[in-house]
Specification:
Blueprint: H1 2-5, E1 11-15, H2 19-30, E2 34-38, H3 42-49, H4 60-69, E3 73-76, H5 79-83, E4 88-91, H6 106-118, E5 124-127, H7 135-146, E6 154-157, H8 167-172, E7 177-181, H9 184-193, H10 195-198, E8 204-207, H11 209-240, H12 244-252, H13 273-286, H14 292-304, H15 307-313, E9 323-327, H16 342-352, E10 356-360, H17 365-369, E11 377-379, H18 383-387, E12 392-395, H19 400-403, H20 407-411, E13 416-419, H21 426-431, E14 435-437
Parallel strand pairs: 1-2, 1-4, 2-3, 4-5, 5-6, 7-8, 9-10, 9-12, 10-11, 12-13, 13-14
Antiparallel strand pairs: 6-7
Helix pairs in contact: 2-4, 6-7, 11-13, 11-14, 13-14
Length: about 450
């Protein structure tokens, strides 16, 4: 049996120390494995060695420091060091969109080449990055082509389903673990790796590699579809005069619908949903198939990013020279991630029409400063500073800090409130004499 050949503490190499890589490395160490993270970025690796994470994720920092101190976790820029004595290599490099919104797999190919050039013992190469079906099979060929000596190895797919803001919980207490393999040997090793999690009752699904790769894309595409659907219905509710919050109550009690992802807003963002919707559309196009539903999902999402400014113009038809307060820059709460953030799109639109912007976010200010460079934007130290001298407030991110704000606190500074997350009570705001606009209400 393969398990007999495995040491009590399995050594895992995680390549790529971005969001997925850091969370995976830390969590694999937390469940008892020996983990080494590999990245070309020397500055990032030096910070990780000191317990400084390149990302903010709730609960990540203490686990990072704990496992560094306990010697379960280490980091290096030396690929050979990472590969040495490892039983598994988890590929967690980025697969960003490139021209025409196709998936950029250059980093995946580069990792495969490095594995081939340096491999001198059996390993399971596992794609944890989101990649189009068929990618892992190509990785196998690249590794084989670059081998310097005859060495056995396996390839597998193990897509991640980590939500920013709850990634640690999602890894350690997953709804499911999906594993795509070609050999029983690889399956047994991956079952052993995840045993500390599966023995607590969390299911592990074994399928073939292409199916595993496809499960990730379809999962994200379906979640994006729910979000665009509810946003479109919310816009219809406003025209009819119904309240989307009441509609959602009726939807979520139906077990066929499933709870979650029925909250209307300014459009979905982040590093996964927009990229994976585009990715699946192009995977289908390469097969000669037009995914009309996903085309519509993308179109609705692009329109939804315009809604906040359209609502604002109902009360401020001319926004040139006006000052608009923006609460929230991250694409969602509990993260500092601003990738594909609807808030940034709204800010750019306001600035392009001559408005001044004062913005605040509990975590994402520094990241936003790196991408927003304009003389008419001011980054504020707190939410009240952002309101001072403003003509209206647009809430873009559903931070708990904002949910606790009372209408009287806002009334002191502005009269117009655009709540793109429906976190406040419409009636209470209007009773205070505020102009309140939600989504679908």
């Amino acid at each position: 049996m393969v398990q007999k050949n495995l040491p009590k503490q399995i050594k895992i190499c995680v390549v790529g120390t971005g969001y997925v890589g850091v969370v995976s490395a830390v969590c694999f160490a937390e469940i008892g494995h020996k983990v080494i993270g590999v990245d070309k970025d020397k500055e990032k690796i030096e910070k990780l060695k000191k317990g400084i994470s390149p990302i903010f994720e709730k609960g990540l920092k203490p686990l990072l420091k704990k496992n560094l101190k306990g010697k379960n976790l280490s980091f290096t820029t030396d690929f050979r060091e990472g590969l040495k004595d490892s039983f598994l290599v988890f590929n967690a490099v980025g697969t960003p969109p490139r021209e025409q919104r196709k998936v950029d797999l250059r980093c995946v190919w580069e990792v495969a080449e490095e594995v081939g050039k340096n491999l001198d013992h059996y390993v399971v190469f596992v794609n944890k990055s989101t990649v189009p079906p068929g990618t892992t099979e190509k990785v196998e060929k690249i590794i084989q082509k670059n081998l310097k000596t005859r060495v056995d190895f396996d390839v597998a797919s193990n897509p991640e389903f980590l939500r920013e803001g709850s990634a640690i919980k999602d890894f350690l207490e997953p709804d499911r673990i999906v594993v795509g393999v070609k050999s029983k040997r690889a399956e047994k090793i991956l079952r052993e790796v995840y045993k500390p999690i599966t023995k607590k009752g969390h299911p592990l699904i074994v399928t073939d590699i292409k199916n595993a790769e496809m499960i990730k894309y379809v999962s994200n595409a379906f979640l994006a579809t729910k979000l665009s659907f509810i946003n479109e219905i919310a816009n219809l509710c406003e025209s009819i005069g119904t309240d989307i919050k009441e509609i959602i109550k009726g939807l979520e009690l139906d077990k066929r619908m499933g709870k979650g992802y029925f909250n209307p807003g300014p459009g979905f963002g982040g590093s996964c949903l927009p990229k994976d919707v585009d990715g699946l559309i192009h995977i289908a196009l390469d097969c000669g198939i037009n995914l009309k539903v996903l085309d519509a999902v993308r179109d609705v999402n692009e329109y939804q990013r315009k809604v906040a400014v359209l609502k604002l113009k109902k009360y401020l038809p001319e926004i040139f020279g006006k000052t608009i307060a923006i609460w929230g820059l991250a694409f969602k709460a509990n993260t500092d991630d601003i990738r594909e953030s609807a808030s940034l799109e709204v800010i750019k639109k306001l600035l392009s029409e001559g408005a001044k912007v004062k913005c605040y976010d509990p975590l994402a200010l520094e990241n936003a400063k790196n991408v927003l460079n304009h003389q008419n934007i001011e980054f504020c130290k707190d939410k009240i500073e952002a309101l001072e001298g403003a003509d209206a407030l647009i809430l873009m991110t559903e931070w708990d800090e904002f949910k606790k704000v009372k209408p009287k606190q806002i009334k002191k500074y502005v009269k117009i409130v655009i709540d793109t997350r429906n976190i406040w009570d419409k009636e209470k705001f209007e009773k205070e004499g505020l102009i309140y606009e939600g989504i679908g209400r």
